[in-house]
Amino acid sequence: MARRKVAANGAADVSESSTSAAPKIVGADSEPRDVIKANNANLTELKHTLDDALKRFLGRPDQFKTIHQHTDVRLALGWAGVFVATGTALYGWKVEFERSKPIVWAGMILYIILTSVQTLYAYFVEGDIVYAGKRKTFAKRIETERITIESRTQPSTSTSPPKYELSLAYVRSSNSGKALLHRGKGHDVRGYNYFFDEEGTLDQDVFEEWVRGLVANVTGEDN
């Protein structure tokens, strides 16, 4: 039976608002998988659903090893801010007010600095990156591959539905990154209604095939 598509404005009259793990379906790899649903009227949810699907697909053992650098940095800064705030509050509670003021002020300033660095890092360094991964291959030499993927949403217009945009950057090198073997960049856009039907169900096979083709293009595997 053919898949039903979302209307041209990119939104369908549905009420589901969260990813669903209802009945299982059989994917192209013949393994059962959870049905994934999202609210077609919520572009943020649609984007996050596809971002998560992309991470799951590229994080498979036969694909790439996920790099968690950006998440680790944000978590480290966040927890550091929590410890500073907690320590400052406890010190101010236990020590007499006038004596504690210098330490409390220092703690407040340090907390502001940490939260500001976390915000600036997320905006300027991490940006729109949703996936970073690497893998090593062993032939006549050890080659290291790195891929970085950014995602964005293009809002709907009078003539087209909202779209999901991916930008890929890929580098293959050897000799600990000193010898560049291949560099590739890719970019593509698809309407959200290309991946979700009118009930908000994600066609995982279609999405993964699209991502697989983009990755093959930047890595040179389709040449």
Key attributes of the depicted protein:
223 residues; alpha+beta; two-stranded antiparallel ribbon; 25% strand; disordered N terminus; 4 helices
Please characterize this protein's 3D structure.
There is one protein chain. By secondary structure, the chain is an alpha+beta fold. 39% of the residues lie in helices and 25% in strands. The strands form two sheets. The protein has a five-stranded antiparallel beta sheet. A two-stranded antiparallel sheet has the order 1-2. Strand 1 and strand 2 (32-34) form a beta hairpin.
Q: Evaluate the radius of gyration.
A: 23 Å
Assign the structural class, choosing from mainly alpha, mainly beta, alpha/beta, alpha+beta, or little secondary structure. Answer: alpha+beta
> N- to C-terminal separation?
34 Å
Show unreliable segments.
1-28
How are the strands of the biggest sheet laid out side by side? 3-4-5-6-7
Number of helices: 4
Largest sheet: 5 strands, antiparallel
**Based on CA inertia axes, which overall geometry fits?**
extended
Fraction of residues in helices?
25-40%
Percent strand: 25-35%
Average pLDDT for all residues: 85
> Element order, helices and strands?
EEHEHHEEEEH
Number of strands: 7
What's the helix and strand layout?
Blueprint: E1 24-26, E2 32-34, H1 43-58, E3 65-66, H2 69-94, H3 97-126, E4 129-138, E5 142-154, E6 163-174, E7 179-191, H4 204-219
Antiparallel strand pairs: 1-2, 3-4, 4-5, 5-6, 6-7
